[in-house]
Amino acid sequence: MTAKPQDAIPIINHILLCFNVISWVVAFIVIGLCLWLRFDPDVSNWVDILEIRSFYIGLYILIVSSILISASGFLSCAATLTANQFLLIINIVSQFLIFIFGLAGAAVLMDNSTYKSAIHPVIKIVMLRLINLAPENDDATVALATVQENMGCCGGSGVDDFINLRRAIPAQCRDTVTGNAFYYGCADEITWLLEQRSSWITGLAILLCAKKIVNIVLSTILIQLHQKEEERR
């Protein structure tokens, strides 16, 4: 026996309602993680010193995207419960737009936080400038020491930055136990740190985007089922 539209409609309604609840929970988690990363004192310190404020752009986009996802959940619930085809169409369009916006936010965050991303060469340039200014410039000396000592790194690309610029290798560039210079440059260490801290946010954002596609498909099926039900009557 073939399933009747009136049998399938309640099932899809319940699935959509459950998905909306899950989306609300995940969206609030994403907002919380984005705010935590945005106002984390350590991250803020590295971002300010190394002039990589573009890292925040992806966080801002994902915060706005998550707020829109939370708001669209009410529209989705209203469209599902009222079986209003106009609201269902509006819901499909809004879900698609939010999908694009959320995916863009995840892409921007990845492009400004991962290893060898857009901020990687920026960090190298800033570190070279700090090396050039130190030790004559006190601010540059303090900034350079802060980054290298706390991150366990040396120069932008490595100890060769000091050698090529004919600068003395500072104590902050060396392991306190072995006395050897740190192998990795600060560009690598900083991007690894940011990638590690933003990976969960990116993953959850992509999960929300995938859920939007499912929502669009189910809403489209729901419209067709309601149309068949009306024709049958």
Automatic annotation (TrEMBL):
<dbReference type="InterPro" id="IPR018499">
    <property type="entry name" value="Tetraspanin/Peripherin"/>
</dbReference>
<comment type="similarity">
    <text>Belongs to the tetraspanin (TM4SF) family.</text>
</comment>
<dbReference type="Pfam" id="PF00335">
    <property type="entry name" value="Tetraspanin"/>
</dbReference>
<feature type="disulfide bond">
    <location>
        <begin position="154"/>
        <end position="173"/>
    </location>
</feature>
<dbReference type="InterPro" id="IPR000301">
    <property type="entry name" value="Tetraspanin_animals"/>
</dbReference>
<feature type="transmembrane region" description="Helical">
    <location>
        <begin position="86"/>
        <end position="110"/>
    </location>
</feature>
<feature type="transmembrane region" description="Helical">
    <location>
        <begin position="59"/>
        <end position="79"/>
    </location>
</feature>
<keyword id="KW-1133">Transmembrane helix</keyword>
<keyword id="KW-1015">Disulfide bond</keyword>
<dbReference type="GO" id="GO:0016020">
    <property type="term" value="C:membrane"/>
</dbReference>
<feature type="disulfide bond">
    <location>
        <begin position="153"/>
        <end position="186"/>
    </location>
</feature>
<protein>
    <recommendedName>
        <fullName>Tetraspanin</fullName>
    </recommendedName>
</protein>
<dbReference type="InterPro" id="IPR008952">
    <property type="entry name" value="Tetraspanin_EC2_sf"/>
</dbReference>
<feature type="transmembrane region" description="Helical">
    <location>
        <begin position="12"/>
        <end position="39"/>
    </location>
</feature>
<keyword id="KW-0472">Membrane</keyword>
<feature type="transmembrane region" description="Helical">
    <location>
        <begin position="200"/>
        <end position="223"/>
    </location>
</feature>
<keyword id="KW-0812">Transmembrane</keyword>
